[in-house]
């Protein structure tokens, strides 16, 4: 009888243990699923040029270069145009002149309102060999209604897979996201950010691209969308500005600004990324040259620098705790984690996560997320006794900043 009771008790314990494992596994699956849902993933190959409206010379040049220059095979899709525009210029001669003036020679047009035509092998032939595609402005829902989930949509993705570029501004920007921001009129006839036609081409997953952003005072509209679709990354692109997406990163190009809505706040003044409290409606601004990591949803700084290798015994030279304030409440630690040198801030009982720093040259390091340089100091015996941390520093007569290298006298004027 005792043996039976022991067996039953053991079975109960095993059952509870199995249930705990199952619950933990389910929670882990849910957490991983939520993390995946909140990531935004760009194209594995190729590039996207997503513009807010209007095209600067820099944006034209980027599109031309990525399209393969004089060898480019360009397909233009003007389906976002209304019927009056198309009837006025049915052969798209006016539109074509804009691209021939920029050096494009091989240009074809694709346009239909019929999804059956868009899903036919004959219609998609121009995309089979295209190195570049341009999606015009207009109304993005017209493009979505004609091509979404058709062979045209599939061949657009194949252009990227072959390493080509897809560009567009205004409606041609919104359609490239997963959510079709401002895709149709509401009952009052307004083009609000929450759309009737909701699904875009999804070249970047979990994203909503809004256009004419600051120019039309749309900067607060994104919060209305994110209340009902919190998994989306909101990107507001101003006129004469665009983002160049490659993989899971983009870089801002153009004359104005890109607004980021990712539930954090970043400022180059502090070089820190702060997670927002629930319900706080804040966004931040990126300018020409700034980079953003879509997958990690965070601003990416100093990515343009190539770090030098450093031996493990050399890394150990820099380890230590360095007091930075006379009050003795603020330390900067240099530690090693996973064979990577890292910088960590300690303030009383608050210990921040360490960030990786990489060698630029002996005793000079940089980090990739903030605009920071670390210059280590040695004593007369060669032992490291501390370091200075600055957002800019002259190196070999040049002022090395985020993505700008200016001659020292020019940079000195900029800093005054």
From TrEMBL:
Any one GO biological process: proteolysis
One GO MF term: serine-type peptidase activity
InterPro entries the UniProt entry points to: Class_I_gatase-like, Peptidase_S51
Entry superkingdom: Bacteria
Keywords carried by this UniProt record: Hydrolase, Protease, Serine protease
PANTHER family assigned: CYANOPHYCINASE (PTHR36175:SF1)
Family of the protein in this entry: Belongs to the peptidase S51 family.
Name of the protein: Cyanophycinase
Species of the source: Psychroflexus torquis (strain ATCC 700755 / CIP 106069 / ACAM 623)
Biological classification of the source: Bacteria, Pseudomonadati, Bacteroidota, Flavobacteriia, Flavobacteriales
